[in-house]
What we know:
single chain, 265 residues, mainly alpha, 76% helix, globular
Amino acid sequence: xxxxxxxxxxxxxxxxxxxxxxxxxxxxxxxxxxxxxxxxxxxxxxxxxxxxxxxxxxxxxxxxxxxxxxxxxxxxxxxxxxxxxxxxxxxxxxxxxxxxxxxxxxxxxxxxxxxxxxxxxxxxxxxxxxxxxxxxxxxxxxxxxxxxxxxxxxxxxxxxxxxxxxxxxxxxxxxxxxxxxxxxxxxxxxxxxxxxxxxxxxxxxxxxxxxxxxxxxxxxxxxxxxxxxxxxxxxxxxxxxxxxxxxxxxxxxxxxxxxxxxxxx
Length: 265
């Protein structure tokens, strides 16, 4: 059985295991309900004070859908960095290294399987809340197709970013501070709270060039607009982010394994 098949079955098992923890999924969903209600009140005031029906090309219902998607992307993220940090510090990583699947691939398969389940339930909950608050929000079919391509790439980028933070545990006693910085940068610079098109014009190119926008803002806008003209640029940014993060993760992980060997396993 090759690595692809092994990853598939590990991911499938992880997805099934996630279904057993319904309480956690419900908790995340309830949190999203609260956040969406608060956002609705805030953006209602914003649209009214700006005396406009659209901002960044989005109506109020579309803005709430954007926030639902971005929140669902971030809320669905498993604790990758924290788990790797714990395995490194406790020494349980040694057990993972003897598995018949490379540890990065094993951790990736578990993360992706768990994340898709979480994202599905959180996003469905958010969609139901939207129906109750503002009614149905139309989405182009092209946007659904583009989103289906962009979302897995976004998850892969976020996994690599978290993996990089986790492997820093080979050198740092505690990586929670690094993860806090990473998560806040993803939240703010990725456009979770505010679409990047609402930022100042001179700042937008910088923000969109960062990997965080390819994880959060890009997939959400692809869903809402369904633009085939803008989508190649998004995929290019995602591929570049995957490449850069992948190279960094590879060398950090390799250096970490050498550090284990140098210290006697």
